[in-house]
Amino acid sequence: MYNNFPNEGMRCIRQLLRRAEVSNQVNFAIDTFNVRANTELPGLEYDIYISSGGPGSPLPSSEAWELPYFQFIDALFAHNKVAERKKHLLLICHSFQLVSRHLSIGEVSKRKSTSFGVLPVHLTGPGHNDPVFAQLPEPFFAVDSRDYQLTDLQPARLTELGIEVLCLEKERPHIPLARAIMALRFSDEVVGTQFHPEADGEGMLRYMLTDERKQQVVTAYGEDKYHEMVRLLSDPTTIELTESIIVPTFLRRALAELGEPVLA
Fold first, then answer.
1. Residues pairing with 145 in the sheet
2. Which region among 3-7, 91-95, 169-173, 219-223 has the lowest average model confidence (pLDDT)?
3. Which of 94, 104, 92 is nearest to 163 (CA)?
């Protein structure tokens, strides 16, 4: 979903998949689909899907990839309603916004300003008990980078679809604006995050310390924001902890429910 823009996300996802192969003693057959740039979409022949973040607007467009993407999403949900062997899906950032809009569960809109940094994320009651999120502290830290947000959820629609809110953005008592939704449990097999659970502390820190990236962040957000990010990325209890829990637990749980042998 990166539309050919340079990014760290795919490196992080592939790294986590390699680690999961080792830790669970499985071999993944991994294919990558360039959805937005080449209108490449998978079928339902796979067991586990990760739909990445990406730049740009999640609002309705006439781009060629959008209709096939939502047809795939609808097909996956429809399959899971009737099939014994379910399909597992993790939606990250841009994909999370797109599917939230498609399902009409709330308002996806442009923020007044970009949310960027290593920021605290707060668990809800369902989040504390969620099989993927339960191991995280309250709050936990995540890499957040977005110009859009999901707010103003429709309770009746959530109930209809069985969707649970797992996380909210940091509290801002001095700002009279709705808190953005940071993670949703769409179904037993489908979970989505507004933040980037794939981000790795070590790699992100290395990237942040390059002269080019430092200048980009300082120019856009100031030196204080840059130094705060470097400090938090250096702390093993922030991004490194989040990276070690969410995607690995999602994959391990998917493998277990698919009947694949998983190490304890």
1. 116
2. 169-173
3. 104
Whose CA is closest to 178, among 146, 141, 150? 150
Q: What six digits make up the tokens of 192?
A: 């989505």
**CA 162 to each of CA 35, 112, 150, 158, 188: distance values in angstroms, whole numbers, following the listed order:** 28, 30, 17, 6, 10
Q: What are phi and psi of 191, to 5 degrees?
A: -135, 150
Looking at the whole model, is its pTM more than 0.90?
Answer: yes
Q: For residue 136, what are its two tokens?
A: 């995280």
Residue 69 has pLDDT above 50, yes or no: yes
- Tell me how far apart the alpha carbons of residues 101 and 198 are, in angstroms, rounded to a whole number: 22
Residue 123, burial from CB neighbour count under 10 angstroms (0-12, 13-18, 19+)? buried
- Say which amino acid occupies 202: E
Q: How is the chain split among helix, strand and coil, in percent rounded to 5?
A: 40, 20, 40
Residue 16 CA, chain-centre distance (Å), reads: 14
Whether residue 215 is predicted with pLDDT greater than 60 in this model: the reply is yes
For tokens 């096939």, name the residue.
68
What span, in angstroms and rounded, lies between the C-alpha atoms of 147 and 108? 11
